[in-house]
């Protein structure tokens, strides 16, 4: 099982990307209409969606205040601030935590995850 | 004639699992086993339905050596767990339909059956029995993960058997203080036995610093194994907590810490199934906290949360299992862009992610806001609890981080890893589809969440879809997503890197091992040193003592006699000294 | 229901003497018999008679209460007497039952483990040892206790030494045992001497009466108690006086180990109970202190340290030997509580442990008999090559750990309850920790046997090679007994409670 390559790895650099005649042969048919999600411009402009949503909700929050306000709910958009700050703190803590806690994958001598039987490390084709 | 309604429904599944273990190997027989795996939980649910009368049912009483055991107790609390475990067993059975593995089939049935039977246990001793059985039967699911899972399986087994032993010790002490009454009702921490039982439960439901077995073992189990494991053990522990420790204050704080600390581990973890294991830990924190609050509303929230949690957590593990099955890895650093080849799985995963992050109209929204609201109400009476509310909100943002964004984003979107694989097998898609459907149905504003309410132990008077709930939840979620986009845009979001992340299990996998090997090296040196010393003693005092005390009186270099003779004399002196002091 | 009516009257009247005299006489005859199988048949006959007699004695004790048999018509305290009561009658039954099972087992085992020309002397020594143990349990005279103690000990040294046919280290172990055993006996007899000085009598009942009239007596009896306690402590392998035990258990022939493990230390423990509670009285300061601090303290230490040592052994027999030391700790803990529940729990564990440990050694002997293995590393795959033996071994191992529905569970629960009654929660913790250690040292054997690979012989996995029926039968009788006690322990618990109430002077 480990020997047979279960998946096909497309070499992104050498495969010709012809914009005029796109090749959908290796794309799942359901996914074809959604390929725009992979486009650079979509990814870059996605931010507007949550941003606008957030502002609408902050305004609505001022109009409809909570029935059971917390001490911090005097500030308009308090939950948005909590969400934003909390999220940022979590992500920013990742780098120091990683340097503190990360070790090489064979640190315990049991090998990393997952099982070699399933792992692509032993399948043909590199994916670095 | 035994009345079948006296039999704990879990036993039917345990029995079926044992039959499965005896069904021979081979393609044709595999279908028989699969029929068992899917049909027997339905039968068990039917039996629960037959036994349930709307009142508390106590049955299956056995007298054993002076102890009276109540092996079956169905009431409004245990009933929810019973049905839930049956439901999820069916989904798991469908999910694992492609896998022709006798061990997985039989241990899945026994494990689920033991969990059901444990939930329906009416006394602590019956609970102990099934508590241990869940551990012993489930370890095979971990070992099916292959060679690398062996050590994790042993550690898992050791920790869980320990939990069982502590439970038994606690039960013995507790039963002593109640005058031989072992029935499993409110226990509390006033009794030393109660504290032991709480520790035993704490191990199973991943209290901080007792949690590491979960992140150690779950990601190493087999594909179906992880899905099955994630559903039962911890939820059974939550049940035990809800039964015995409602309103125990310390649980509020333990729960709040439990919601927060896994967030930090999840953000740096590379293996998606391990991320989900941390996420599981964090979700359990919400439940523990709700139990600590202990109001009717909080308990309703916990029961509802358990119900939906099992479904969406299984859904997430299933989607990652499907990825593992097709791609061969679930490491974030190796994945990306998979929506092109597994779009259906991607949609199901997104539904699961939305559910766990508590988007309105999705599963956890109703129940999680119930728990948080109950903490808010409690905080209005006791100001210090606002800290807990803050922690829970922080953790909610954390859930959004690891389960809501990280898991689907790095697997299905992000940069294209170039992997082109087949969509998941049909049976996995069916299982995930059913779970997704349930996630949406139980949160549907018109007649959906009311079904959930019907199951809750107390009368519910709570409206989740008020404007302020929806608005403020959206504020939190949108702000989190905005933050993600900003961090990503400016390249601050750290790239996923392959690594082993240390957790508390380092204390025994590394530190403990080092200490043990150091001690054994020292022991060897000490032994040789003692040998030399012993020889000296033989030459001097030892031999003289021989001549005094031994009728044989012979001198010999037969090793430890000299030392022992000395010891004997020493003991006598000690005894006389003690006596002298007393008299 | 009158069981007594099935026993002839003379047997009941002279039973207590018969169980000592018969094996002594038979031993003398057997020693000069050249035929191996005749020697075996004689031993079996003697042991069976003793078993039936012991059964009668127990039945009579239950029906009629304690009884004193004057020897040669001289009434105590002047004549020598035998005394049967609720404390020693069950132990008589235990010893003779184990002896019967051991003799059955010895038929195949001794052929493998004892030199051919030493076989008849082996049975003779075995019967001497048996007579000594029975004598020291049943006698009512303190000096007789010493004599029988020596009879059993000296024959045991010989028996252990016969293991040399299998492993030369048996000689060193036997010598070691001899030295330490003699020290113990010497201490004991010194203690008796002091006691005689104080009371002027050797009859134990009389001693007890006189001492209580003196309200504990002077410093002489204090010293006497110290000597007796330490002497017996050595005999019953109280930690840290257990150094003789692992070697003796590991290298003696299997049936000797089985018999020693299940009876010899138990008889010594009985003597500690007899002296500590009926001759002396725990309500006197010095006795109470020693029991509460020294006996409990050492018992608890033994439970932990001996278990740890058991974990680090490579030889399965030594593992079990250290485990025995740990288990003695449980009994000592129960005794040291000086409460009815504690004594009953200790006594219960005494019986249960005899069954469990005897069974474990029986199984180990069978492994050696078929494959010549004692090292734990060689146990790999034994569940496939010797499924029935391994099955029995598993039952005993679970019982030793204290899994529910086994005898070990019953005694541990009783002990934990007794300890909790006294409010010693820390000791409950010690019991738990020691049980976890037991899981480790037994578990690693079981893991290897069940999950290890069957060893290769000439490139093929070793064939199934089950132990002979005469080995399996005693093993499974004990295994069944262990489960029966685990499911319904009423009978044994009652026995233990009767003994406990006797010790505390509440019952007959």
Instruction: Give the class of chain C from helix and strand content and strand pairing.
Output: mainly alpha
Beta fraction of the residues of chain A? under 5%
Coarse shape of chain C: globular
| Biggest interface between chains | A-B, 75 and 88 residues
Main beta sheet strand tally, sense and closure of chain A: none
Rounded mean pLDDT score of chain A: 72
User: Termini distance of chain A?
Assistant: 22 Å
Please give the count of helices of chain C.
19
**What's the alpha carbon Rg of chain C, rounded to whole Å?**
22 Å
Major β-sheet profile of chain C = 2 strands, antiparallel
Order of helices and strands of chain C: HHEEHHHHHHHHHHHHHHHEEHH
Question: What average pLDDT do the residues of chain C reach?
Answer: 88
Residue windows where pLDDT falls under 50 for at least 5 positions of chain C: none
Strand content of chain C: under 5%
Number of strands of chain A: 2
Question: Which percent range fits the helix content of chain C?
Answer: over 70%
What is the total tally of β strands of chain C?
Answer: 4
Characterise the protein shown here.
The complex is a heterotrimer of chains A (128), B (583) and C (508). Chain A is mostly helical and 128 residues long. In chain A, 35% of the residues lie in helices and 3% in strands. Chain A has helices spanning 40-45, 48-63, 78-92, 94-101; strands spanning 8-9, 102-103. Chain A is flat, with a radius of gyration of 23 Å. Residues 1-6, 12-18 and 113-128 of chain A have low confidence and may be disordered. By secondary structure, chain B is mainly α. Chain B has 20 helices and 4 strands. A two-stranded antiparallel sheet of chain B has the order 1-2. In chain B, a hairpin with a 2-residue loop joins strand 1 (57-64) and strand 2 (67-74). In chain B, helix 3 packs antiparallel against helix 4, helix 9 (223-244) runs parallel beside helix 11 and helix 10 (249-268) runs parallel beside helix 15 (386-412). The model of chain B is unreliable at 548-559 (pLDDT under 50). Chain C has 508 residues and is mostly helical. Helix content of chain C is 76%, strand content 2%. Chain C has 19 helices and 4 strands. Chain C has helices at residues 9-31, 36-64, 89-113, 119-138, 142-161, 169-199, 204-213, 219-235, 244-251, 254-279, 285-311, 316-336, 340-371, 382-385, 387-401, 407-422, 425-451, 469-487, 490-503; strands at residues 67-70, 81-84, 456-457, 460-461. In chain C, the strands form 2 sheets. Chain C has a two-stranded antiparallel ribbon. In chain C, strand 3 and strand 4 (460-461) form a beta hairpin. The chains are: A mainly alpha (128), B mainly alpha (583), C mainly alpha (508). Chains A and B meet through strand 1, helix 2, helix 3, helix 4 and strand 2 of A and helix 6, helix 10, helix 12, helix 14 and helix 15 of B.
């Amino acid at each position: 099982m480990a020997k047979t390559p279960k998946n096909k790895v497309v070499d992104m650099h050498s495969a010709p990307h012809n914009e005029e005649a796109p090749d959908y042969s290796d794309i799942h048919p359901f996914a074809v209409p959604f390929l725009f999600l992979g486009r650079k411009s979509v990814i870059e402009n996605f931010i507007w969606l949550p941003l606008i949503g957030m502002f609408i909700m902050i305004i609505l929050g001022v109009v409809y205040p909570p029935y059971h306000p917390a001490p911090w709910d005097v500030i308009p958009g308090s939950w948005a601030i909590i969400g934003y700050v909390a999220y940022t703190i979590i992500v920013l803590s990742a780098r120091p935590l990683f340097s503190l806690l990360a070790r090489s994958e064979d640190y315990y001598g049991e090998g990393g995850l997952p099982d070699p039987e399933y792992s692509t490390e032993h399948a043909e084709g590199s994916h670095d | 004639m035994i009345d079948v309604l006296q039999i704990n429904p879990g036993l039917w599944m345990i029995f079926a699992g044992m039959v499965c273990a005896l069904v021979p190997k081979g393609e044709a027989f595999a279908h028989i086993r699969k029929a068992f795996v899917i049909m027997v939980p339905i039968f068990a649910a039917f039996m629960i339905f037959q036994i349930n009368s709307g009142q508390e049912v106590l049955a299956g009483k056995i007298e054993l050596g002076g102890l009276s055991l109540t092996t079956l107790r169905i009431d409004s609390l245990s009933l929810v767990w019973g049905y839930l475990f049956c439901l999820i067993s069916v989904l798991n059975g469908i999910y694992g339909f492609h896998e022709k593995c006798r061990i997985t089939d039989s241990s899945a049935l026994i494990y689920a059956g033991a969990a059901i039977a444990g939930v329906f246990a009416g006394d602590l001793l019956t609970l102990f029995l099934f508590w241990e059985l869940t551990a012993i039967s489930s370890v095979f699911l971990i070992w099916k993960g292959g060679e690398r899972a062996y050590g994790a399986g042993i550690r898992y087994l050791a920790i869980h058997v320990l939990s069982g032993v502590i439970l038994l010790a606690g039960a013995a002490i507790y039963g002593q203080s109640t005058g031989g009454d072992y029935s499993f009702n409110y226990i509390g921490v006033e009794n030393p036995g109660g504290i032991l039982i709480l520790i035993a439960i704490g191990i199973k439901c991943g209290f901080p610093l007792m949690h590491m077995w979960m992140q150690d073992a779950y990601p190493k189990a087999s594909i179906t194994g992880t899905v099955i494991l994630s559903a039962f053990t911890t939820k059974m522990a939550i049940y035990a907590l809800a039964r015995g420790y409602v309103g125990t204050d310390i649980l509020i704080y333990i729960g709040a810490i439990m919601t927060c600390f896994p967030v930090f581990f999840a953000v740096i973890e590379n293996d998606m199934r391990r991320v989900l294991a941390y996420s599981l830990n964090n979700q359990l924190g919400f439940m523990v906290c709700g139990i600590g609050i202990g109001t009717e509303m909080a308990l309703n929230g916990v029961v509802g949360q358990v119900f939906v949690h099992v479904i969406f957590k299984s859904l997430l593990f299933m989607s990652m299992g499907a990825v593992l099955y097709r791609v061969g890895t679930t490491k974030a650093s190796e994945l990306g862009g998979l929506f092109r080849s597994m779009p259906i799985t991607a949609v199901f995963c997104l539904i699961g992610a939305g559910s766990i992050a508590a988007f309105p109209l999705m599963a956890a929204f109703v129940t999680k806001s119930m728990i948080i609201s109950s903490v808010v109400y409690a905080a209005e009476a006791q100001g210090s609890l606002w800290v807990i509310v803050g922690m829970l909100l922080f953790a909610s943002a954390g859930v959004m981080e690891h389960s809501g964004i990280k898991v689907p984003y790095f697997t299905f979107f992000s940069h294209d890893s170039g992997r082109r694989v087949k969509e998941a097998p049909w049976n996995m898609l069916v299982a995930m589809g059913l779970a997704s459907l349930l996630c949406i149905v139980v949160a549907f504003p018109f007649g959906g969440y009311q079904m959930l309410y019907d199951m809750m132990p107390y009368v519910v008077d709570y409206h989740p879809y008020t404007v302020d709930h929806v608005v403020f939840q959206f504020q939190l979620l949108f702000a989190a997503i905005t933050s993600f986009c900003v961090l990503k845009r400016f390249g601050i979001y750290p790239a996923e890197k392959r690594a082993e992340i240390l957790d508390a299990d380092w204390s025994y996998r590394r530190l403990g091992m080092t200490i043990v090997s150091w001690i054994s090296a020292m022991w060897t040196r000490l032994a040789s040193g003692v040998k030399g010393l012993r020889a000296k003693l033989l030459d001097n005092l030892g031999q003289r003592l021989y001549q005094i005390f031994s009728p044989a009186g012979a001198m010999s270099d037969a090793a430890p006699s000299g030392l022992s003779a000395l010891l004997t004399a020493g003991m006598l002196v000690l005894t006389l000294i003690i006596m002298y002091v007393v008299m | 229901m009158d069981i007594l009516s099935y026993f002839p009257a003379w047997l009941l009247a002279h039973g207590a003497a018969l169980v000592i005299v018969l094996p002594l006489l038979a031993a003398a005859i057997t020693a000069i018999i050249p035929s191996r199988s005749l020697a075996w048949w004689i031993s079996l006959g003697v042991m069976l008679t003793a078993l039936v007699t012991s059964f009668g004695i127990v039945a009579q004790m239950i029906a009629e209460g304690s009884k004193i048999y004057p020897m040669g018509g001289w009434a105590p305290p002047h004549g020598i007497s035998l005394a049967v009561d609720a404390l020693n009658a069950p132990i008589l039954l235990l010893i003779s039952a184990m002896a019967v099972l051991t003799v059955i087992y010895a038929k195949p085992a001794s052929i493998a483990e004892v030199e051919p020309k030493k076989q008849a002397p082996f049975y003779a020594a075995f019967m001497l040892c048996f007579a000594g143990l029975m004598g020291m349990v049943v006698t009512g005279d303190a000096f007789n206790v010493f004599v029988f103690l020596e009879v059993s000990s000296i024959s045991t040294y010989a028996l252990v030494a016969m293991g040399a046919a299998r492993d030369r280290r048996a000689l060193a172990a036997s010598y070691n045992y001899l030295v330490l055993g003699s020290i113990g006996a010497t201490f004991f007899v010194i203690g008796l001497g002091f006691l005689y000085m104080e009371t002027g009598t050797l009859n134990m009942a009389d001693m007890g009466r006189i001492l209580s009239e003196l309200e504990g007596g002077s410093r002489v009896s204090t010293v006497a108690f110290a000597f007796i306690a330490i002497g017996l402590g050595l005999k019953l392998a109280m930690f840290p006086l257990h150094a003789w035990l692992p070697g003796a258990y590991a290298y003696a022939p299997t049936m000797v180990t089985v018999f020693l493990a299940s009876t010899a230390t138990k008889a010594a423990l009985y003597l500690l109970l007899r002296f500590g509670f009926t001759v002396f009285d725990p309500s006197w300061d010095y006795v109470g202190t020693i029991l509460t601090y020294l006996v409990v303290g050492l018992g608890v230490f033994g439970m932990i340290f001996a278990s740890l040592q058991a974990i680090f052994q490579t030889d399965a027999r030594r593992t079990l030997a250290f485990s025995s030391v740990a288990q003695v700790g449980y009994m000592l803990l129960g005794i040291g509580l000086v409460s009815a529940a504690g004594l009953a729990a200790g006594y219960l564990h005494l019986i249960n442990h005899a069954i469990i440990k005897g069974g474990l050694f029986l199984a180990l002997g069978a492994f050696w008999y078929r494959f010549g293995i004692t090292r734990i590393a060689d146990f790999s795959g034994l569940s496939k090559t010797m499924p029935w033996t391994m099955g029995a071994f598993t039952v005993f191992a679970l019982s030793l750990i204290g899994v529910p529905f086994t005898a070990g569970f019953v005694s541990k629960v009783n002990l934990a309850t007794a300890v909790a009654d006294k409010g010693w929660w820390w000791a409950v913790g010690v019991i738990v920790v020691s049980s976890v250690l037991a899981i480790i040292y037994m578990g690693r054997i079981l893991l290897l046997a069940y999950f290890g690979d069957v060893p290769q012989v000439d490139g093929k996995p070793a064939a199934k090679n089950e132990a002979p029926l005469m080995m399996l039968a005693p093993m499974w009788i004990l295994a069944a007994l262990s489960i029966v006690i685990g499911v319904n322990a009423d009978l044994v618990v009652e026995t233990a409670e009767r003994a406990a109430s006797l010790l505390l002077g509440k019952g007959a």
